[in-house]
UniProtKB/TrEMBL annotation:
Region (Disordered): 36-65
Domain ExoP galactose-binding-like residues, every copy: 708-850
Name of the protein in question: 1,4-beta-D-glucan glucohydrolase
Glycoside hydrolase family 3 C-terminal domain residues: 449-663
Signal sequence segment: 1-39
């Protein structure tokens, strides 16, 4: 294989075969089966028969790398024999620290707690290591409290340390996995995992929900960056070192020692294959593809001794993973010999047919051992207890689940470890963001950068010259770190949230200054003295699950601000280096054409200096570090080229998987096509009403108190009952509608979609219903926003007082969590009205935009 592939060059299709086969052969003590790769199908091939029941015989036969320890098994049995049914059920239930107290742990004997992406001690994301340790102590003490005749069983405390210990202010933030995938450096994964485990232990935590072994196939998925690569070989090659780095080596003295933590291989299985890249969606592939593409990381992870596996939110051929007995029990536990425990994902049990978040025996019966019931743990505990007593969950299944959890706790030495604060690394705050860890992270940044274009070998730059640094990503550590950073979505952060970290700008400035050159920062690209060259840092704003799902792979289809900046600088005769921050490859041909050099920098994290290390020449005039990164995902040639994966038929990307220039390469690129393949402006259907128009096929319905209705698609005042509608101006002529409730009494206006609309996924993802409105009258307290979902189905939220509190005659974008409507009994999967407004005669509102999204000027509460 040549060092890199030129733009657009196709390469020999890679068979998604794999290390899985190799690992299987190793386990079996044989050699890789010849012809195995031929049997593997391309991941895009249609399904012959879409069954959701796996045949375990098709999967690798494996044994746990940890030999059965008879003494430990006896100890588990003895403890189990002393446990009450209540205690056993408690072990299966995991609550979130935002919704549970140490007293709850004491009373319900819960086996585990987690800290979700937005959960911190005292609800403060600035909580210190000492505060985390103190909370860990309290939870532990509660779990060990034997008053009332209880058994002392230490609680497991888990968190998403997915790019370093990312919930902690001051921790080292490693590049997100997509960037690590570009390094092709499995041993670096080990070092990162070792450092992450140490930082976790400083804060009293024993368990991380990582690594993600997803093999993302459709880059519209908002979790693409959590996967190392679209190529299962990369994921498989990383899985072992990651698990060993986190947990220590099986058989070695450091295995699950106090410097290590329990790891979680997630999300089992097929998370990266979800259809159209929809979060928590359906993976429609054959069993072969499920095994060889999506399952590739699991054999090596299990072989390295992974003690926990997290089940996926998603489905395989229509059946939710949390209920898939053939995969959870038949394949994972029986065939592949997994003897640790399977934990659920965030309230995912509620998505099984016939289940709710607080009641789901089927998940346990399918083979789930621990249920992540963040805010629903109490209800889940109670229903599970009832089901066990009624025999709906067999005692043997309960005992098996508890046995698995106790086995992991004992292997991790938790019964002997004592108070979290007394453990080896606890409270050593200096290890959080330890310079040694930061050095590993900085190296990872250097290795992750992928050079796509270097016209006239513009790079590396001379630090003795004048360099302008521009773009909204230049000096924004939150933006360069992406989602799962201090908060779940990584949004709303400021520079002071990142002590010890370095922005990309700061890294450049440091080295240019030291070399005696001149540099200037201007987000808008203004300068006091004409620079020799500009480095423009721009890209995606932070996002995580669901909220990051997009409809095409176009970069910011609605905004050309960055492009305009690149073009202006060039037109002023300045050479431009683009540094692109993103959680996935995106169609940026226009931006590439407008730049002399283009670097895919992914989401580098806290060590922005790693960028300057590669972009600038060192003291001897040569680049101190060359580019080494190779594309871990294929780069699209237009905005609709997805799914796009190496090995698929008619593979024709803009930049092939594995592409990446070095300084030895010429780096010139002919002008790329600027044809997006889709109307970029037309793809914003998260708006139901904007620019004075409804979505095609949608109608507006008004309903008077006497139930008379009228419908319209344009604002024609005279035609309606109950509410009159006319056109007004917000930002442009007649881009908004004015609603005047004419009465008598309460009447309604409602947006009616052409087809029932499914906002289930958006609701699950904490999206908001958004209305940009202007209050033009008083609003009585009984005004309500509502949705309808078919005959007899609706949900409404009281908003009168909240609207009345808005400034008069001022445009405000208000947001109401979609979850409010769900809590008010609406079925968010089939909305027939979204939204409606009910108000008293005399109310007057103008509205310029209705839709859903994540940011509002004014967040409304669910209300009574
Ligand atoms: C995510 C998991 C994560 C869990 C706990 C879920 O929504 O899918 O990856 O581990 O939340 O935060
Ligand atoms: C939590 C995340 C979780 C998500 C799932 C958030 O509130 O902080 O950890 O993954 O909800 O919906």
């Amino acid at each position: 294989m040549s060092k890199h592939h030129h733009a657009g060059a196709s390469r020999a299709p890679l068979r998604p075969l794999s290390l899985l086969v190799v690992a299987l052969a190793m386990v079996a003590g044989g050699s890789a089966m010849p012809g195995a790769s031929e049997a593997a199908e391309a991941s895009s091939s249609p399904d012959a028969k879409a069954s959701a029941v796996a045949d375990p015989g098709q999967w690798p036969a494996m044994k746990s790398p940890l030999a059965v320890d008879p003494a430990l098994e006896r100890r588990i049995k003895a403890l189990l024999a002393k446990m009450s049914v209540e205690e056993k059920v408690g072990q299966l239930v995991q609550g979130d620290i935002a919704s549970l107290t140490p007293d709850d742990v004491r009373k319900y004997r819960l086996g585990s707690a987690l800290a979700g992406g937005n959960s911190d001690p005292g609800n403060d994301y600035h909580a210190t290591a000492a505060q985390w340790v103190a909370l860990a102590d309290e939870l532990y003490r509660a779990s060990m409290d034997t008053r009332g005749g209880h058994n002392a069983i230490p609680l497991l405390f888990g968190i998403d340390a997915v790019h370093g210990h990312n919930n902690l202010v001051g921790a080292t933030l490693f590049p997100h996995n997509i960037g690590l995938g570009a390094t092709r450096d499995p041993e670096l994964m080990r070092e990162i995992a070792v450092a992450t485990a140490v930082e976790l232990r400083v804060t009293g935590l024993d368990w991380t929900f990582a690594p993600t072994l997803a093999v993302p196939q459709d880059d519209r998925w908002g979790r693409t960056y959590e996967g190392y690569s679209e190529n299962p070989e990369v994921v498989a090659s990383y899985a072992g070192p990651l698990i060993e780095g986190l947990q220590g080596k099986v058989g070695g003295k450091d295995f699950l020692s106090p410097r290590h933590v329990i790891a979680t291989a997630k999300h089992f299985l097929g998370d990266g294959g979800t259809h159209d890249g929809r979060d928590t969606g359906d993976t429609q592939v054959s069993e072969t593809v499920l095994r060889d593409t999506h399952g590739a990381g699991y054999a090596p992870a299990l072989q390295a001794g992974a003690q926990a596996v997290m089940a996926s939110f998603s489905s395989w051929n229509g059946a939710k993973m949390h209920g898939n007995q053939s995969l959870l029990t038949g394949v994972l536990k029986q065939r592949m010999g997994f003897d640790g425990f399977v934990v659920g994902d965030w309230n995912a049990q509620g998505q099984l047919p016939g289940c709710t978040t607080t009641d789901c025996p089927d998940a346990i019966n399918a083979g789930m051992d621990m249920i992540m019931a963040p805010d629903t743990w109490r209800g889940y505990y109670e229903s599970t207890l009832k089901h066990v007593k009624a025999g709906r969950i067999p005692m043997a299944r309960l005992d098996d689940a508890v046995t698995r959890i106790l086995r992991v706790k004992m292997r991790a030495g938790l019964f002997e470890a004592g108070l979290p604060s007394k453990r080896a690394l606890s409270g050593q705050a200096a290890l959080l963001g330890d310079p040694k860890h930061r050095a590993v992270a900085r190296r990872a940044v250097r290795e992750s950068l992928v050079l796509l274009k270097n016209q006239g070998q513009l790079l590396p730059l001379d630090p003795k010259g004048r360099i302008l640094v521009a773009g909204d990503g230049a000096d924004d550590i939150g933006k360069q770190s992406g989602g799962w950073t201090l908060t779940w979505q990584g949004t709303g952060l400021k520079a002071s949230d990142f002590p010890g970290a370095q922005s990309i700008w700061a890294g450049i400035q440091e080295q240019v200054k030291a070399a005696g050159g001149g540099t200037e920062l201007s987000v808008e690209g203004r300068y006091s003295q004409k620079p020799d060259v500009a480095i423009v840092v721009f890209g995606e704003d932070p996002y995580a699950e669901f909220q990051g799902d997009i409809k095409t792979v176009a970069y910011k289809p609605a905004s050309t601000q960055d492009l305009a900046l690149l073009k202006r600088l060039k037109s002023e005769g300045i050479k431009v280096v683009a540094v692109f921050l993103s959680g996935r490859p995106l169609w940026v041909n226009r931006e590439i054409n407008a730049s002399d050099a283009f670097v895919a920098a992914w989401l580098p994290g806290s060590e922005g200096g790693g960028i300057a290390d590669v972009l600038l020449r060192g003291a001897n005039g040569k680049a101190a570090h060359d580019f080494r990164g190779k594309l871990p995902y294929s780069w699209p040639r237009d905005a609709v080229q997805t799914p796009l994966n190496v090995g698929q038929a008619n593979y024709s990307p803009q930049f092939a998987y594995g592409y990446g220039l070095t300084y030895a390469d010429k780096g010139d690129l002919a002008s790329l096509s600027e044809e997006p393949g889709v109307d970029l402006g037309a793809n914003q259907s998260d708006r139901f009403f904007e620019r004075g128009a409804l979505i095609k096929g949608w109608r507006l319905r008004t309903t008077a108190q006497d139930a008379a209705t009228s419908e319209l698609t344009r604002p024609i005042e005279s035609r309606n009952v109950g509410v009159s509608v006319s056109a007004v101006d917000h930002k442009a002529q007649e881009d908004a509608w004015r609603f005047k409730w004419t009465g008598p009494g309460l009447s309604k206006v409602a947006l009616v979609p052409a087809q029932p609309l499914d906002l289930g996924r958006e609701t699950n993802g904490d999206a908001l219903l958004l209305l940009t409105l202007r209050r033009e009258s008083d609003v009585a307290p009984d005004a309500r926003f509502f949705v309808e979902c078919g005959e007899g189905c609706s949900g409404s939220v009281a908003v009168g007082a909240q609207l009345a509190a808005l400034p008069l005659d001022t445009w405000t974008r208000v947001g109401v969590p979609l979850k409010c409507f769900q809590a008010a009994n609406a079925s968010m999967g089939r909305l027939t009205v979204v939204p409606g407004i009910e108000a008293q005669a005399g109310t007057q509102l103008s509205i310029s935009e209705v839709g859903y999204g994540t940011t509002a000027d004014r967040l409304l509460e669910c209300g009574p």
